Automatic annotation (TrEMBL):
<dbReference type="InterPro" id="IPR023210">
    <property type="entry name" value="NADP_OxRdtase_dom"/>
</dbReference>
<feature type="domain" description="NADP-dependent oxidoreductase">
    <location>
        <begin position="15"/>
        <end position="308"/>
    </location>
</feature>
<keyword id="KW-0560">Oxidoreductase</keyword>
<dbReference type="InterPro" id="IPR036812">
    <property type="entry name" value="NAD(P)_OxRdtase_dom_sf"/>
</dbReference>
<protein>
    <submittedName>
        <fullName>Aldo/keto reductase</fullName>
    </submittedName>
</protein>
<dbReference type="InterPro" id="IPR050791">
    <property type="entry name" value="Aldo-Keto_reductase"/>
</dbReference>
<dbReference type="Pfam" id="PF00248">
    <property type="entry name" value="Aldo_ket_red"/>
</dbReference>
Length: 333
C-alpha cells in the first residue's frame, strides 16, 4: 500500500486508514472475534493508521486494539486516539472536557488500556467551549515533550481554532467528516488546513453506510445504533440519499469498481494531504474498501461523479441539531 504524510510535520501512514469505532460502539452489535481478525487483515494489507477513541465503548475499543496488536511490532502501526467526550453509565453524552489536567488524565488511562508507552497522534474529540484551545494544546505539548505522545491532532474544529492551536504547537492533522455527501470543509476549513500544513484524516467517507452500495432501506436499526436518530437515515431523507447512491452506481460499474470503492477513491484523490478512514467491521468490507487504492478517477470520471452526486445534494444534516450546534467546524463555516 502506498503511503502519505500527515501534514507537513506528521508521521508517514498508509494512504487508507482504519477507523475502529463501529467495532465497539454506536453502530449496533459487533462480533469481537471478527473485529480482531479485521484489524489483523488490515495490518497485513499494509494499513498502518489505526484510529480509536477512549470513549468508544467506554474504553473497550482501546482494549480491543491492544488485544489485536499483541505480537505486532509497535513501530509498524500509527495509533490515533481521540479523547475528551464524557459519557454516563447508560452511554449518554455529557459534554466534553479538555482542561489540561483532564488531558493528562485521559492520556494516562489510554496508555494503560492500549498497553503502549506512547500514542502516535492524540487529539481532543471536540472543542471544549469552556477551555481555550491554547490551554488544551499546551497540555498536549507537555505530553509530547515527556514522550507520552508523538504528535498532536484536532477533530471537528473550524479555521480559527486551527490557527490558534497551530500557533501553540505544530498540528499534524485535522480529523473531520468528508465524503461525497459531506463537503462542507471545502469552503474554508480545507484551504486553511493546507495553508497551515495540517493534513486531513477523513472519517465518514461512506457516510455511515449510505455510500457503501449495500444499505438496505428496509433495515431496522437497533436502539444502540446512532443512525436510528441521524437525519440522513430518517424516512424521506434516506430514500433521497440512496437515490444519489444509485446514480453513482453507473460510474462505479463503468470503472469495474464498487460504489464504496469509488466513494473512498474520490476522497483519497481530493489531495495527497487527505487520508480516508474506512470503518470496516468485517474482513469482507475491509477488502472492498482497500480496493479503492487501485481505482483511479480521471477527469471524466470526476465530472460524472459530480453530476451523480452534486455538492450539497445530501438530504438531512450529518448529525442531529443539538450535536450540530456543538461542532466548532459547523459554527465557523
Amino acid at each position: 500500500m502506498r503511503t502519505r504524510q500527515l501534514g507537513s510535520t506528521g508521521p508517514t501512514v498508509s494512504e487508507i486508514g482504519l477507523g475502529l469505532m463501529g467495532m465497539s460502539d454506536l453502530y449496533g452489535p459487533a462480533d469481537e472475534a471478527e473485529s480482531v481478525a479485521t484489524i489483523h487483515a488490515a495490518v497485513e494489507a499494509g494499513v498502518t493508521l489505526l484510529d480509536t477513541g477512549d470513549f468508544y465503548g467506554m474504553g473497550t475499543n482501546e482494549l480491543l486494539l491492544r488485544d489485536a496488536l499483541r505480537g505486532v511490532d509497535r513501530d509498524r502501526v500509527v495509533i490515533s486516539v481521540k479523547f475528551g467526550a464524557l459519557r454516563g453509565p447508560d452511554g449518554s453524552w455529557l459534554g466534553h472536557d479538555a482542561r489540561p489536567a483532564a488531558v493528562k488524565t485521559f492520556a494516562a488511562y489510554s496508555l494503560r488500556r492500549l498497553g503502549t508507552d506512547h500514542i502516535d497522534v492524540y487529539r481532543p474529540a471536540r472543542l471544549d467551549p469552556d477551555v481555550p484551545i491554547e490551554d488544551t494544546v499546551g497540555a498536549l505539548a507537555e505530553l509530547v515533550e515527556a514522550g507520552h505522545i508523538r504528535h498532536i491532532g484536532l477533530s471537528e474544529v473550524g479555521a480559527e481554532t486551527m490557527r490558534r492551536a497551530a500557533a501553540v504547537h505544530p498540528i499534524v492533522d485535522l480529523q473531520i467528516e468528508y465524503s461525497l455527501l459531506s463537503r462542507g470543509i471545502e469552503a474554508e476549513i480545507l484551504p486553511v488546513a493546507r495553508e497551515l500544513g495540517i493534513g486531513v484524516t477523513a472519517y465518514g467517507v461512506l457516510s455511515r453506510g449510505l455510500l457503501s452500495g449495500h444499505w438496505d432501506p428496509s433495515r431496522e436499526l437497533t436502539a444502540t445504533d446512532f443512525r436510528a436518530s441521524n437525519p440522513r437515515f430518517q424516512e424521506g431523507n434516506v430514500e433521497r440519499n440512496l437515490a444519489l447512491v444509485e446514480s453513482l452506481r453507473a460510474v462505479a460499474e463503468a470503472k469495474g469498481a464498487t460504489i464504496a470503492q469509488v466513494a473512498v477513491a474520490w476522497v483519497a484523490q481530493r489531495g495527497a494531504d487527505i487520508v480516508p478512514l474506512v470503518g470496516a467491521r468485517t474482513r469482507e468490507r475491509l477488502a472492498e474498501s482497500l480496493g479503492a487504492a487501485a481505482v483511479h478517477l480521471g477527469a471524466d470520471d470526476l465530472a460524472a461523479i459530480e453530476r451523480a452526486v452534486p455538492k450539497d445534494a445530501a438530504a438531512g444534516d450529518r448529525y442531529r441539531a443539538p450535536m450540530m450546534a456543538q461542532l466548532d467546524s459547523e459554527r465557523t463555516r
